[in-house]
Every structure is written in C-alpha cells, then in structure tokens.
Design goal:
Helix content is 74%, strand content 0%. The chain has 62 residues and is an all-alpha fold. Helix 2 (13-20) packs across helix 3 (24-32). The mean pLDDT is 84.
Length: 62
C-alpha cells in the first residue's frame, strides 16, 4: 500500500505521514522493513493509508 502511493501518486513517505497523521520514521520503517514494525503499528498504518488511498481516488475522479 505504501509503495503504491509513493510510486503512483509521487508522494514521499513524509507526505504520506503528514496526510495520514503518522510519524514519518514509522512510515519509512514500514516501507523499508515491514517485519521490523510491530503488527499493531502496521495495522494502524494500513488503516490510515487506506483512508488516504480512498481520498486520493475520490480527488482524482473530479
């Protein structure tokens, strides 16, 4: 999910963190080594990024 946003939308991990209300270091870590991030934290990141993806899709359809 994170990788697709960085590639498809040209977002940096800092952009994603800011838009999703996350710590940029956590986003960087989840992108580079997901297994190093506790499952609860990965779930939280995934949920916030899911909302971000939906928002980006809705904005792109206008």
């Amino acid at each position: 999910m994170l990788e697709s946003r960085t590639i498809a939308c040209h977002l940096t991990t800092q952009n994603i963190a800011h838009l999703a209300g996350l710590d940029a270091r956590d986003v960087d870590k989840a992108l580079s080594d997901p297994q190093a991030v506790p499952i609860e934290q990965r779930y939280g990141i995934a949920m916030r990024c899911s909302y971000l993806i939906n928002s980006l899709h809705l904005a792109g359809n206008r």
